[in-house]
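Re: beginner question about structure tokens

> Can someone show what the tokenized structure looks like for a real chain? I only ever see the sequence side.

Sure, here's an example I had lying around. Input first:
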Amino acid sequence: MIPSDAPILTAEAMRAAEEAVFRFEHQHDVMERAGAAVAREAARFAMGRPMLVLAGPGNNGGDAYVAARLLKAGGHDVTVAALAPPGTEAARTMAARWGGPVASLYEAQPRAVLIDGL
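And the corresponding structure tokens:
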């Protein structure tokens, strides 16, 4: 549960926070943890229903590819659709680790559960 007094960060403040973390931890490790958290909660929420994972070209897309990979490995019915090819080194690495098919965002068919990594 998110505390009611938790701060809301601007995009600029979030980027600064991420950069601070990346000084101490490899970006791939951070993405793996973020994607694992998304996968865990999505699996709990989906209750066996098919999922559509949307991946953007940036690091959120990288997190989405991690979540998709872990969900698929856990036996879930997962489809990935991308807005564009991965545009960062870390996102490209995570997309390669996904290794499965990637549809165009514009051709993706609706599914019961949507994971937004745009």
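Each token stands for a local structural state, so reading them left to right follows the chain. Strands lie at 51-55, 78-82, 102-104, 113-117.
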